[in-house]
Amino acid sequence: KEPRGDPCSAANIDQATVTHMAIKWDVHFQLQMLIGSVSLDVKILKETDKVILDARDLSIRTVTVGGTEVEFRIIPNSYTSFGSKLWICLPEGKNRAGAELVINIAYSTSNEATALQWLTKEQTTDGKAPYLFSQCQAIHARSIVPCMDTPSVKATYTAEVSVPAGLFTVLMSAIGEGSKSDAKRTTFFFEQPVAIPSYLIAIVVGALEKRDISPRCAVWAESSVVEKAHWEFAETENILSCAESIVGPYIWGRYDMVCLPSSFPFGGMENPCLTFLTPTLIAGDRSLVSVIAHEIAHSWSGNLVTNANWEHFWLNEGFTVFIERKIGGRLEGETYRQFMSFNGWTNNLIPAVHQQFHPTHPYTKLVQEHEGVDPGMTFSVVPYEKGSALLFTLEQRLGGPEIFEPYVRDYFKHFSHKSINTDQWIEHLYNYFADQKEILDSIDFPSWLLNSGMPPAKPKYDEEMVVDCNTLINEWIEATQITVQGITREAYTAMKPLQQIICLSQLWQHDPPIEHYKLDAMNALYSLNDSENCEILLNWIRLCIKSRWEPIIPRAIRFLNSQGRLKYCRPVYRELYQWPICSEEVRENFLRTRKSMHPITAELIGMELDIK
């Protein structure tokens, strides 16, 4: 079936479509606004007297069609998170099917645009200059540019971005085309020749330096971070080449990354040509670069072949996780791929279904219904892990990687540059495996796709690496004050970092809490307080807090003050605050440091600490 309309967009995509956007922005840090215009190349699909765009908190000055000023209206949507409809009236002769026209809109953003985060220089790592970054996924592009804010519409774009002359560099999800300066301002130019959905429009402005990794890969960051980031992500070209060997040629020209300030509250974002990354990935041992594999995989799954709307988000993320782990298997061995997949099922999917939600919750379905729902509120690991598990199951049932990987390549070739829904995926799957229809028919697709809760069947995983984890976990749980002296560090240090993380996580979840003498021994053996791996530190700190091991308090507070990622800060602040011996110290630390926090982080942690 053809994709149905997007319930999260008011755009009249059945009557018109946008094929190109020409953006012009002046960046104003004091006002915290973008001021400028956008010209939209629009093609009329069916005769209509209007083009309807999505907009949120935009101040529209003028609208022209073909150079002639036209009437427009801004009509609020029923749901606040959807923003408003920008209703543009078309003149005679511009409304017939097949007509092509240019709509120019002069406008400015609000200083509360939901896609933009403005950081003071105090919130950056080096404190040299203020910083701006965007996050448009899922439906926030409409707050920085009037557009058809749905993944079912893809357009190329160019951009001219003007900033105060001096310290600033501008980057976008596009290929840089140089810059020019005068005494007061510098204008940067960009072109994205591959059509993309609006949620992949992205901008970064800051005091940034670049380090090349390969002819097509580089990393950007603030000066004090850029060398560390360059070393940490040095394998990016190898990962990208590995991805190409699995799913086909990389079409985006460049694969650059920007390591954002430590106050960045999120993990990463797959913006084309410019992946956004949290600095907490810099572990000093390249152990967290699976995130790079995930974002690289998005260059095909999501960016090249895109979910038609957010109800089919699993098509973006399920394929991406599946490919990410394929890359891990090629680089680290198939046993590691199996372990990552097992961990995704056991430590990600099961807690999401049974703790974050519940087994009958509609957001545990792969194909969801988003009528009147902000898709940001539905995000969880479910589309990632349940979708990946379905593809893992299909690969096993259909004959293994030698049979399934050519299908994956054909999937991306067949749907390249398109936005699709789950019905279209199923149809292509059955067409490709026409001679194996009996096997496909034996898979309970309705339960996998449409039912809530856990999938109807668990894939078969090689659990070789799980055995090593369970052995070490049980050794610590069963140890006594005498036998703990006999535990050596070799079993732990021989593990992959992901295995180490799982061991600490399982010990944290164990009841009763782990005894203090065991924590003393663990720290002495494994130097956990000194780990530069934030995932290991998080699980170690939470393990110690649960056991009320007082030596962890100063280390935990240093950890909180070293970065602002919500995934780490929120649980540690919450759990320290619930420990009476340090609750006041934690509140005081928050009050002292919140100016340097991202506003979202400060607000949410303030709620955890009962501070408004």
UniProtKB/TrEMBL annotation:
Cofactor note: Binds 1 zinc ion per subunit.
Compartments reported by the entry: Cytoplasm
Binding site for a peptide: 135-137, 265-270, 565-567
Active-site residues from the entry: 295 (proton acceptor), 384 (proton donor)
Binding annotation for Zn(2+): 294, 298, 317
Protein name in the entry: Peptidase M1 leukotriene A4 hydrolase/aminopeptidase C-terminal domain-containing protein
SMART domains: Leuk-A4-hydro_C
Alphabetically ordered keywords of this record: Cytoplasm, Hydrolase, Metal-binding, Metalloprotease, Protease, Zinc
Metal-binding keyword on record: yes
Source organism (scientific name): Pristionchus mayeri
Example of a GO cellular component annotation carried by this entry: cytosol
Peptidase M1 leukotriene A4 hydrolase/aminopeptidase C-terminal domain ranges (all copies): 464-609
Family: Belongs to the peptidase M1 family.
InterPro entries registered for this protein in UniProt: Aminopeptidase_N-like_N (IPR045357), Aminopeptidase_N-like_N_sf (IPR042097), ARM-type_fold (IPR016024), LTA4H_cat (IPR049980), M1_LTA-4_hydro/amino_C_sf (IPR038502), M1_LTA4H (IPR034015), Peptidase_M1 (IPR001930), Peptidase_M1_C (IPR015211)
Entry's Gene Ontology molecular function annotations: aminopeptidase activity; epoxide hydrolase activity; metallopeptidase activity; zinc ion binding
Cofactor(s) annotated in UniProt: Zn(2+)
GO BP: any one term: proteolysis
